[in-house]
Write a structure and sequence with these properties.
Layout (H helix, E strand, L loop, with lengths): L1 H15 L2 H20 L3 H6 L1 E8 L6 E3 H13 L7 E9 L5 E10 L2 E12 L2 E11 L6 H19 L4
Parallel strand pairs: 1-6
Antiparallel strand pairs: 1-2, 3-4, 4-5, 5-6
């Protein structure tokens, strides 16, 4: 009974928390999520996502529902190190309901600078990642070179995705 009462109090406080306090809580959760990957802490990492979470990776084929993402990530986590992302900069925007927020972040990663963006939802007093998009940041002066590198893959994938295929 005490646990239920404590949870209800925490939920009420978090819903009435000023926007700045909510942003700090979201920032803490996002940092913890990234740290869990660096620590290869599979359970913590995925507990910080909603049960219907989505992760969109850097490859055009990587649009994973939670169970698919877990299956992809598990071997990486089992090796003792998944990936290591550290936020260099983060912006958090609150929805009017106080239970929804979205964010963008620049990350220091093993792939160089990447950008993450996503949506977090307040679930039972905890901010959870519902949707996350990871992209590799490409300097404008390198875009033409990158387009040439991925031209064959993109052509084939576009054909595969066209209606009627």
């Amino acid at each position: 009974m005490k646990k239920i009462l404590s949870l209800l109090i925490l939920l009420a406080l978090s819903q009435n928390m000023p926007a700045q306090g909510k942003k700090e809580a979201i920032n803490t959760q996002l940092d913890a999520w990234h740290q869990a990957a660096a620590d290869a802490d599979f359970d913590t990492y995925f507990d910080l996502m909603t049960k219907d979470g989505v992760f969109i990776g850097t490859d055009a084929t990587e649009n994973w529902q939670l169970d698919e993402f877990k299956a992809y990530a598990k071997p990486h986590f089992d090796k003792g190190k998944a990936w290591s992302f550290t936020a260099l900069e983060r912006n958090i925007y609150m929805g009017g309901d106080g239970k929804t927020a979205w964010f963008d972040e620049l990350l220091d990663t093993q792939m160089g600078i990447c950008r993450g963006s996503g949506v977090v939802l307040l679930k039972n007093g905890t901010w959870k990642i519902a949707h996350y998009v990871l992209s590799i940041a490409v300097p404008n002066e390198n875009v033409d070179e990158l387009v040439r590198i991925k031209k064959d893959f993109d052509s084939k994938f576009i054909e595969k995705l066209k209606p009627g295929k």
